[in-house]
Structures are given as C-alpha cells and as structure tokens.
Amino acid sequence: MKRPAFIDRESHRRAGAARAVFDQSVWPLRLKVIANCKLRIANCKLGKSDAETPTQPHTRKPPDIWASPKVRSDSTLSICNLQFAIRNLQSLFFSNELSVSGRMDGGVKPRRSLTTTNDPRRGTVLIVILVLIVMLALAAYTFSETMIVENESSEFALRGAQARAAAESGIEFVAAALGAAEDPEAPLNLYHDTATFAGVLVADNAVETARSRFTLVAPLESDATGTRVRAGLIDESARLNLNAIESFELEEDASRILLVNIPGMTDEIADAILDWVDADDTQRTYGAESGTYESFTPPYMAANAPLESLDELLLVQGVTPQLLYGEDANRNGLLDPNENDGEAQLPLDNADGLLDPGWSAYLTVHSRESNLGADGAEKIEINNGVLADLYDQLQPELGDAAALFITAYRIYGATNLEPLPTSGTSGSSSSGDDSAPSTTGDAQTDESLQRMAQGLARAVGGAEGQPVTRAGLDLTQGAQQDVASLYELIDAEVVATINEEEQTLKSPWSSTGDLEAIKQLFDNVGTNIAPTIEGRININQARREVLLGLPGMTDAVADSIVNSQLVAEDGTANTDELERRSSSAWLLTDGIANVTTMRMLDPYITGRGDVFRLQVLGHFDRRGPIVRIEAVIDRIESPPRVISRRDLTKLGPGYRTEWLVPADTTAAPAAVR
After folding, report:
1. I need a labelling partner for 505 at 20 to 30 A (CA). Which of 42, 214, 312, 373 fits?
2. Is residue 318 predicted with pLDDT exceeding 80?
3. Inside any domain, residue 265
4. Of 486, 508, 526, which residue is a domain's last?
5. Range of 53's domain?
C-alpha cells in the first residue's frame, strides 16, 4: 500500500518509532502462535499428544486409529478447527498491523484482508441489491412509459377536440352560406366546389400537424364503382321522401312502383313501408299493419305516421340493416377493400366491384323546396278565378304578350294540347285539354262558380253593363280552363276573340327556344302557391333507380339524365350547367323529353331543393385524428336550421389526410376529384 507523503520530519520520526514498537512486540508473538498451531496439527496427524515435544524421535509406529470412525471424525474435526484458527489469527494480526500502521500514517483507511472464507452466504447481499436495482429500474421505466402514453393521450385528445371544432365550424360555415343572400352574378355552387368546400383553413399554425381544416365530402351519384367523391352538399330532394308519397295522391300500384326499382326492394317490403307511414290501419295488398307487428316478440304497433328518421325503417317488416345501409360500412361513399372481398371481412358483400350504398342513398324523410319567386315574393297563381286580376299581375312580370296568352288560355284553352295518358293518380286532375274544362263534377256547383267569377270580373271592370277587357280580350265570360302544369303553355296555340276578331295566339315559350324565358315563367308563376313543396325529386342529383319509379318516366329519359355529368373527368364542376339546370325545363330544351312527358313528370320533379345533407370532416394537414359529422340543414327557414346531426367518427376516418389537403390552393384534394 502506497503511504501518503509526510508533512514534516517530526511526523516521519513518530511514524517510524511506532512501526518499530509494533514490529518488536506484536510480530514475534504472531509468528509464535502460528508455529504452535502448526505443530499441533502435525501431532494430530501422527497420533501424538500435546505433551510430546516435537524433537523426540519416533521410536514406534503410530497406532492404527484410522479404522475407528469415531476417532477419525474427531481427528478430522480437530485439524479443521486448528486450520480455521490459524486463518483467523493471520487475519487478526494482519488487520491489527494495518490498523496500527494506518493510525500511524495519519488515519489512512486500512486494507481489507485478502484472506478468503468459505461462508456459504457470501454474495447474498449483492444479489438482493441487484434485484432491488432491477425492480427500481423497471418501476422507473414503467412510470416513464405511463407518463409518455398519458402525454400522448392528452395531446391526441386535444387534437381530437380541435378536429371536432373544425368539423362543427364546417357545419356553421355551410349554414351561414345557405342563409346569405345569393349573388345572381356569382351563384353559390353547392354541388361541387373545391375552392369553397375542400381543405378550408380553420386554425393556421406553422406546424403542419397543428393546422386544422374542414372538408365537405359527398358521393358522386353517377359513379357506381365508388371510386370518386365530390366536395359539396347532397340535396335531399335527390332522394325519395317517404313522408311525402301520400301527398302525391297516387293509386296503390303507382305508389308501390315508386319504391320497387330500388335495389333489394320487394312488393312486400314496399307495401309494408307505405302501410307504416300512412294514417290508416287498412292493410295494402302485400303490406303489414299493427296486426302483423303484434305477433312479434316483443310486440309493437305500426306507427301510421311520418318517419322521424330512416333508422325507424328497421322496425318495418322485412327491412334489415344490410338493406338499409348496404356495403358502405363506414359511410364514406367509396368502395373500400373490405367492402369488395366477399365474405373475407365485414361487411358481407358480393365482390362485384360496384358499391351498394343501401337504401339510405335512395330514401329520405326531409326533402322540400321553396315555392316563392326569385325575389322571395309569392308566385302569381295562374289559376286565379279573377282574370282581370290575373292579367294585371302577369303583365309587369312577363310582358303584354305573355299576360294576354295566359289569360286567353284560361278562357278558351289550347287547340293543340294532347290528352295525357293515365298517370296513376287517385284523384281527378285536369289534363289541360280544351275538351275537358275545369269542373267540380257537379253541374250546379260549376254554374254557381261561373256566375261568381263573371260577377267579380264585372266588379273589377267598373261600370255596370260594360265589358271587362284587357288588351282587347273580353274577360267577363270568366275562366273556363285551369292549368294543371305550366308545361301546358309551351308550344300551345289558343284561338281567341280579340277586339271582336278571332285570332290564333301562339305561345311565347317554345320547347326549342330560350330556356331562360321558360325559367322566368316558372320563377314567377305557379299552379301551386303554397310557400313550400315537399317530396319532388331533384333530377340533377337523383339516382337512376329513383327516377325510374316516377309516373311518366321512361328508361331513355332516366338514362339521359344520369349520363349528363355535372362533374368533369378532371374533377372540376360544370358550373355553367349547374346554373342552367336550376329548373327541370332543361330536359325539354335539350330534347330529352317532350311536352307531354314533362306534363306528366312535372308534379314529381324539380331542378333544386332547399334541404341539404352534408358530411363534414375536421382534420389536420398531416397526421392526427379525423372527425366526421353528418348534418342536415334546412335553408327555407331564416336563419337556416340544422335539423339533424350524427357523429360518424366511430365508423373510422374514411379518408386519408393527404387525400383531403390540396397540394396547392388551386388544386382539388385527391378524394374529391
């Protein structure tokens, strides 16, 4: 052991003196004790007693004592005890030596003895300490992992709340846009507009993972393969409103035909649905009323009232979730791999490469449209019995020629109007034929109404006995013809007496003429002046199966409508077409349907609705959660009202983040092309 340097000569002298005293007193004693112990070991091995001196010669053979087990055991034990004593003495003296020299050297810590022992417990403490260290390390690791997970969970929850706020912002954004006054020069494109509805920034941030946006996604109705979607709203009028079928006043068979073209629909289920929503307990041919449902377990009654939601259809006999929701398990409008693999994964599908969206894509309970004029005022009632009043209302809106023609039509009817085939309506309806003037079915009532109309006409005209005229047309004879559809006026010819001369008036509106003129007529005049109309089908967004069920619809017309794409192959919207098709009259001017067909379809079709369904996604520019909310907004009310809201987040994100964020501000996201 290296000794420390001494501070001075006096300390060195004292240390040397102490060392000398130790060597003279302790060292010889240690050697003597060890020597005596070794001698005793030797005597035990030779069989001598402790009294014998080691210098005596061995004059006899040691007795054969090793044959006795007891003696052998005792001797062995004595030898082991002596050896152990020697080791202890060596350790003792060596430690004393170091202790003394350590104190003499200025308190240096003595070295441990190099002598080893056979203690079987040696190293136990070390193992225990190692185990404790491992346990503490594991505890620290587990705690760290838990804190990391909790931190990530908190961050994910925060980002989830931000994504949800972004989605809710999208709903409020759409509601505000629907409620704002529309600019005639730049009408809002609600069908597909990536600049307005895709990747809209909500909260900016320098970090991509914290920059939140919302995107509106809707299925492309004409894409049966489910590979493309659009950025816009779904017009609920593109679907068949189950609650409005009764208002069509169709016969039982015609009502059933409205439904049976939907994939998976049968006569039995169609009649059961109609029995569920009608107000009576009369069972249809293939239907089911309360008597059927009372046999179920548990029993219940038929609602006999309008549906509150499509989910209520699951209570109707024969309706299953597979029929109602189809193969689109996550409701994203796309054919995902698990939706095109047969029975390999849920949902069960037929692996035909086509997306079955289920009945929810064909049916609704919310559709309606505003029946007000373009300026928000009530439309002019074309069947007004006071012809002078009718003319005075028409003239400033449509001009002299249009006002004269409509008034003359009401008096004389058209000479070239074809009678309509049977439409399947249950009530009496006017075809517009001049051979079938408006009537109540009772001659006495008709005569009374005619006298009343003439009296009103004279009252408006002024002087007693003077004829009431407008533009040379005598109005005192009153209206003889009601208008069932405004399409009766297109291409019509009227033979009227004007200024006491018979003249043939031709319609200002032609089926091959200006579509804008026809739209102006439809915007200002109506056969029904109710503020709203429910249930008419928006032909611009309706699926083929919905169109085929309408009375008067043919396969050729339905195919032409569906094949008229409103979204180009590059993902851009045909904005000019969207504005032009705001009225159903484009079918006539484009040559898809003739006047007779349009007269039959008119009670059931429209060019736009005012209740919209939207699926809005709240997301980030990169990674992070995606929140999906489906909402239904009615813009007829002021301000627009959210009448339905459903969280679709649990069905999965449905889309990848990189699909929703455009690479630049002018491009459309990949998912909406």
Report:
1. 373
2. yes
3. yes
4. 526
5. 9-104
Q: How far is CA 178 from the centre of its chain?
A: 21
Q: What mean pLDDT is predicted for residues 366-385?
A: 90
Q: What is the pLDDT of residue 564?
A: 82
- Burial class from Cβ neighbours inside 10 Å (0-12, 13-18, 19+) for residue 577 reads middle
329 and 404 together in one domain: no
pLDDT one-digit tens code per residue, 11-66: 667 666 666 665 666 566 666 666 666 666 666 555 555 444 444 444 444 444 33
DSSP string, 246-306: GGG-B-HHHHHHHHHTSTT--HHHHHHHHHHHSSS----SS---HHHHTTSSS------S-
pTM exceeds 0.70, yes or no: yes
* Same-domain pairing of 210 and 270: no
Query: Is 115 within a domain?
Result: no
More confident residue, 575 or 415: 415
Beta carbons within 8 Å of 100's beta carbon, 6+ residues apart: 18, 22, 26
If asked whether residues 247 and 305 sit together in one domain, one would say yes
Distance between CA 73 and CA 62 in Å, rounded?
A: 17
Alpha-carbon distance of 584 to 592, in angstroms, equals 11
Q: Is residue 151 part of a domain?
A: no
Instruction: With residue 496 as reference, give the H or E element that holds it.
Output: strand 493-498
405 and 516 assigned to the same domain: yes
Q: How far apart are CA 625 and CA 628, in angstroms?
A: 10
- Determine, yes or no, domain membership for 3: no
> According to the model, what pLDDT value does residue 379 have?
93
- Considering Cα of 169, then 171, then 176, then 181, what sign does the dihedral take? positive
**Dihedral (C-alpha) 500, 504, 505, 510: value to the nearest 10 degrees?**
180
- Which range has highest mean pLDDT (1-5, 112-116, 535-539)? 535-539
Kindly compute the dihedral angle of the four CA atoms of residues 271, 275, 277, 282, in this order, to the nearest 10 degrees. Answer: 150
* Number of domains the chain is built from: 4
Q: Of the residues 57, 76, 104, which one is the last residue of a structural domain? A: 104
Measured over all CA atoms, what is the biggest interatomic distance in the chain, rounded to whole angstroms? 184
What share of the chain in percent tops pLDDT 90? 52
Exposure string over 342-367, b if 16+ CB within 10 A, otherwise e: eeeeebebeeeeebbbbbbbbbbbbb
- The strand ranges marked E within 291-354 are none
> Could you report the per-residue pLDDT of 144-194, keeping only the tens digit for each?
999 999 998 898 899 999 999 999 999 999 999 999 877 766 778 898 888
